[in-house]
Amino acid sequence: MAALPRRIIKETQRLMQEPVPGISAVPSETNARYFHVIVTGPEDSPFEGGLFKLELFLPEDYPMSAPKVRFITKIYHPNIDRLGRICLDILKDKWSPALQIRTVLLSIQALLSAPNPDDPLANDVAELWKVNESEAIRNAKEWTRRYAMDN
Length: 151
Prior knowledge:
Number of helices: 4
Largest sheet: 4 strands, antiparallel
Oligomer: single chain
Radius of gyration: 16 Å
Number of domains: 1
Distance between the termini: 34 Å
Shape: globular
CATH superfamily: Ubiquitin Conjugating Enzyme
Structural class: alpha+beta
Helix content: 25-40%
CATH class: Alpha Beta
């Protein structure tokens, strides 16, 4: 494998030295472009108390293209599908090389605090979120309890 670009080394060092509150991102021992991420469910959200595992991978052309990120822990969220893929503008058309790994992780954390059913990836979840938000929130809390706590 080619030597890591200086930018990735610097970003990784900063993540280790100045971790983002509620987020842990540790590079894999076998591939420094692959990160094991744990995001704590934000307070006052249906995901509060949950620990959500994600994987983040930096493609060869990073930072010219966005990191690949997906949830490994099951989550009931209108912007995250059953495969863990995330609908987030900065991971797609709004990506900019000025953004960093920590920006992406903070945006994912914010998405947990403020689901956006108007830009869904999981249409069934988004539909329920729109027509019966309290039931959708109950489901999200149940899934958090079932899949993101004590495991």
